[in-house]
């Protein structure tokens, strides 16, 4: 806020002159960046493809409906695989993420200078890489299949679960822990009685939340060969079998809605 | 506070009989249901893990490849595929920026339209439907459709990310508008302001800082996603990574991954810094 | 029973919390530690069971020098000192019974505490204590379902479950209403009398201290400025502990001290049931 003195009396402005200049400069920079980025992005674009996009879309839609319902017979097993990838991947992630979280939390880490940075690095590395990219790597290393999918989901989830869990651990009430220590309990007992009960609700919530996300992610892992319904999606898209693609989309959508319903029910029961 | 009456005399205290066993009350009180759930979980684990076919021969082969890949991280090769990597990164970054800007611009009217307290009912329903559609479709699935419509390349990626941004941002924006302090809006309206003025003074001022924060957050997400949708041909560094892995060029792949992680960290740090300044 | 020899604590921030504090408590004596906030009361009792490490000085529990103990020895010694906390410090998401049994953690192995299999004698004793503090019905409730007074009773029972020789009590009534505060203080006095326990009680309420403590130690800025009976807390002494203020109202109470207790007949016997 600024009041400027002029010959006609004071004028009120929301911002001082340097402030509004900086703001305008910021916006100008953004617009400039946008134009440059747009130019770079569309340099090789063949616009003819874009102009007939509405026709292409109408054509695509025409070929996608009606869905080929009979194809459903071949989707049950991939759907079951998809759910397994998400669930087993989440379980594996829990096993790996819980110790990492305790090593990363300031109040439980054995060494803030040595161990904590390593744990934080694991969490950041895992979070920066999308599950599909993990799957891409694992398929290259382990070969296609469920195992690559499960490990990909687990590797991505370690960072997610680890981060939220260590934040929950850092927020616990230290007096409850102190009280358990004062009874003469050993470190493992302090963990069991003083810390674990306090983080259980957060843990359950985080895990369910991640499982929900993992169901979504595992539906597309098959695109890179890591098992599940994505395999059928890829082969249907590659062979331009659009009515099958539609049915797969419907199946994926139904699975996702079902998983949301299940996790909401479990959450209500647990917390 | 209604315990049984107790005699404070320690001698008579000893005369009372107390239980010598105690179990913590179980989470699920119905015993049969509890065991059924345990059995169900066990059965699922056996069946589920049993369904995972592990090809041990392939795995031992993979072991050696995994080591080579880790070796790639120790000595990443930025040089031999640098032109491809550079082109991929530029595509990723440009489509991240343009998609975020366009997505944010579109999500503002959509978000306002999806706020129950200010939008008329047909507009509300239409905007909510758009949001639901955008949120329920995975980015990569949307990318498949856009590639089919406009062809391979970053434009498909741009459309995908912009579409995903709309669902993400418009929903949060609508919730913010629905949560705003009604008293402030009332106060502006009481001055005789029109609909647009109410929007400007009563709502914009309350929502803007969070909108900027969320846009920056979405910028992070869009970059991460831009590294993925290349797998289905929507441009970006994902395609480069895919090619490198197909050719078993693990040192180039490691270089790409390192760059992705570094850029994610930088954008996360910068957007965190800007968000802290704005809010 | 408990002996402190020139106990000093300087925090890493440089703040001197305790400066050369020495005193001794015989068995069975209930000592009130009074003083303004920041005088070092909390630090003092936490130095005794070494939740806070003293900077220098020595502490003896009977013949055992607490300040020289290693990790294992310290855990063993902590079993002999029951601690009662400000705002209860119960593990809120555990049942009342688990909170009580956590007083036995120093005695049982990790595995038996993990699967919650405590020895039958411990469980019997826990139920006896629960009965003593009037909460038998609440055994399976979660601690966060109890009222403030009930929680502090569980806190007392947890400390007693350790079969301690001394109680370290940190502001037991800080978040309780006046009536419940008196009930809790009376309960503390009674259990100390029943078991011949010594106790160090941090307390900021001078009136309560005067009424329920056998001996008062006044701390100011980490040093002892008063050590004597509750009757000796004259306005001059209070001014020395807390600083300048009109103390006549609270020292008047000392004259009427005995009659300030509730005159309901049999009130003392009812306490356990409240």
Structure commentary:
The complex is a heterotrimer of chains A (271), B (279) and C (274). With 271 residues, chain A is mainly α. Chain A folds into 2 domains: 1-31, no CATH class; 76-270, MetI-like fold (Orthogonal Bundle). Chain A is built from 11 helices and 2 strands, in the order E-E-H-H-H-H-H-H-H-H-H-H-H. Chain A has a two-stranded antiparallel sheet. The longest helix of chain A has 32 residues, at 187-218. Chain A starts with a strand and ends with a helix. Residues 1-14 of chain B have low confidence and may be disordered. By secondary structure, chain C is of the alpha/beta class. Chain C has one domain: P-loop containing nucleotide triphosphate hydrolases (Rossmann fold). Helix content of chain C is 36%, strand content 21%. In chain C, the strands form 2 sheets. Chain C has a 6-stranded mixed beta sheet, with helices on both faces. Chain C has a 4-stranded antiparallel beta sheet with strand order 2-1-4-5, with helices on one face. In chain C, helix 6 (148-161) packs parallel to helix 7 (178-195). Chains in contact: A-B, A-C, B-C. At the A-B interface, helix 1, helix 3, helix 4, helix 5 and helix 6 of A face helix 2, helix 3, helix 4, helix 6 and helix 7 of B.
In short:
The complex is a heterotrimer of chains A (about 270), B (about 280) and C (about 270). By secondary structure, chain B is mostly helical. Chain B contains eleven helices and no strands.
List the helices and strands and how they pair.
The complex is a heterotrimer of chains A (271), B (279) and C (274).
Chain A: E1 2-6, E2 9-13, H1 17-41, H2 47-51, H3 53-64, H4 76-104, H5 115-128, H6 131-142, H7 146-170, H8 174-182, H9 187-218, H10 230-238, H11 242-270
Helix pairs in contact in A: 4-5, 4-7, 4-9, 5-7, 6-7, 7-9, 8-9, 9-11, 10-11
Chain B: H1 10-13, H2 31-50, H3 56-74, H4 82-113, H5 121-136, H6 139-150, H7 154-179, H8 182-190, H9 195-226, H10 237-246, H11 250-278
Helix pairs in contact in B: 3-11, 4-7, 4-9, 4-10, 5-7, 6-7, 7-9, 8-9, 9-11, 10-11
Chain C: E1 2-10, E2 16-25, E3 30-34, H1 41-48, E4 56-61, E5 64-65, H2 71-78, E6 81-84, H3 96-101, H4 110-114, H5 120-132, H6 148-161, E7 166-170, H7 178-195, E8 198-202, H8 206-212, E9 215-220, E10 223-228, H9 235-242, H10 248-255, H11 267-270
Helix pairs in contact in C: 5-6, 6-7, 8-10
């Amino acid at each position: 806020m600024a009041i400027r003195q002029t010959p006609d009396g004071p004028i009120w402005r929301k911002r001082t002159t340097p402030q509004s200049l900086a703001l305008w400069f910021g916006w100008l920079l953004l617009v400039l960046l946008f134009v440059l980025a747009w130019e770079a992005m569309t340099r090789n674009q063949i616009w003819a493809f874009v102009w007939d996009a509405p026709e292409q879309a109408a054509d695509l839609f025409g070929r996608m409906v009606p869905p080929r319902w009979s194809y459903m017979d071949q989707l049950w097993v991939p759907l079951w695989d998809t759910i397994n990838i998400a669930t087993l991947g989440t379980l594996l992630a829990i096993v790996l993420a819980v110790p990492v979280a305790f090593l990363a939390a300031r109040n439980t880490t054995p060494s803030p200078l040595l161990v904590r940075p390593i744990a934080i690095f694991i969490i950041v590395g895992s979070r920066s890489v999308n599950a599909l990219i993990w799957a891409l790597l694992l398929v290259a290393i382990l070969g296609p299949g469920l195992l690559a999918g499960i490990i990909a989901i687990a590797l991505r989830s370690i960072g997610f679960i680890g981060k939220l869990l260590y934040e929950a651990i850092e927020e616990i009430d230290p007096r409850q822990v102190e009280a358990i220590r004062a009874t003469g309990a050993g470190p493992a007992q302090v963990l069991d009685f003083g810390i674990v009960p306090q983080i259980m609700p957060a843990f359950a919530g985080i895990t369910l939340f991640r499982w929900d996300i993992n169901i979504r992610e595992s539906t597309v892992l098959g695109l890179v060969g890591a098992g599940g319904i994505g395999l059928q999606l890829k082969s249907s898209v590659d062979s331009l079998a659009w009515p099958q693609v539609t049915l797969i989309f419907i199946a994926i959508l139904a699975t996702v809605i079902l998983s949301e319903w299940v996790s909401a029910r479990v959450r209500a029961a647990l917390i | 506070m209604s315990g049984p009456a107790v005699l404070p005399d320690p001698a008579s205290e000893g005369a009372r009989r107390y239980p010598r066993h105690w179990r913590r009350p179980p989470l699920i009180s119905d015993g049969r249901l509890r065991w059924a759930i345990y059995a169900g979980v066990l059965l699922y684990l056996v069946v589920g893990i049993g369904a995972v076919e592990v090809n041990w021969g392939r795995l031992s082969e993979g072991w050696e490849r995994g080591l080579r890949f880790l070796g790639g991280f120790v000595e990443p090769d930025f040089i031999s595929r640098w032109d491809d990597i550079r082109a991929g990164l530029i595509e990723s970054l440009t489509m991240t920026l343009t998609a975020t800007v366009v997505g944010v611009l579109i999500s503002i009217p959509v978000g306002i339209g999806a706020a129950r307290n200010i939008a008329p009912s047909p507009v509300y329903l239409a905007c909510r439907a758009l949001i639901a559609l955008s949120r329920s479709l995975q980015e990569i699935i949307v990318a498949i459709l856009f590639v089919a419509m406009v062809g391979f390349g970053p434009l498909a990626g741009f459309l995908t990310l912009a579409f995903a941004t709309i669902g993400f941002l418009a929903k949060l924006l609508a919730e913010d508008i629905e949560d705003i302090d009604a008293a402030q809006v009332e106060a502006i309206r009481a001055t005789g302001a029109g609909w647009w003025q109410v929007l400007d003074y009563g709502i914009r001022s309350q929502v803007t800082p969070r909108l900027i924060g969320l846009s920056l957050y979405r910028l992070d997400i869009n970059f991460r996603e831009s590294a993925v949708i290349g797998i289905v041909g929507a441009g970006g560094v994902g395609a480069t990574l895919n090619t490198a892995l197909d050719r078993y060029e693990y040192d180039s792949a490691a270089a790409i991954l390192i760059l992705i992680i570094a850029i994610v960290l930088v954008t996360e740090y910068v957007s965190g810094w800007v968000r802290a300044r704005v809010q | 029973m408990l002996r402190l020899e020139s106990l000093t604590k300087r925090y890493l921030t440089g703040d001197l919390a305790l400066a050369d504090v020495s005193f001794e408590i015989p068995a069975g004596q209930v000592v009130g530690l009074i003083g303004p906030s920041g005088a070092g009361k909390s630090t003092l009792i936490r130095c005794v069971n070494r939740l806070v490490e003293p900077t220098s000085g020595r502490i003896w529990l009977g013949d055992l020098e607490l300040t020289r103990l290693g990790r294992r020895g310290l855990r063993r010694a902590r079993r002999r000192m029951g601690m009662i906390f400000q705002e209860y410090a119960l593990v809120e998401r555990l049942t009342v019974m688990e909170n009580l049994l956590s007083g036995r953690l120093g005695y049982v192995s990790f595995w038996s505490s993990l699967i919650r299999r405590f020895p039958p004698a411990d469980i019997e004793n826990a139920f006896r204590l629960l009965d003593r503090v009037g909460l038998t019905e609440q055994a399976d409730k979660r601690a966060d379902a109890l009222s403030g007074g009930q929680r502090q009773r569980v806190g007392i029972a947890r400390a007693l479950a350790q079969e301690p020789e001394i109680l370290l009590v940190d502001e037991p009534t800080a978040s309780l209403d006046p009536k419940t505060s008196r009930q809790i203080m009376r309960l503390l006095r009674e259990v100390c009398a029943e078991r011949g326990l010594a106790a160090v009680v941090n307390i900021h309420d001078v009136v309560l201290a005067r009424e329920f403590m056998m001996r008062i130690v006044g701390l100011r800025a980490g040093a002892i400025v008063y050590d004597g009976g509750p009757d000796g807390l004259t306005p001059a002494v209070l001014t020395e502990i807390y600083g300048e203020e009109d103390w006549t109202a609270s020292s008047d109470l000392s004259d009427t001290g005995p009659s300030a207790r509730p005159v309901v007949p049999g009130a003392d016997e009812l306490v356990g049931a409240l």
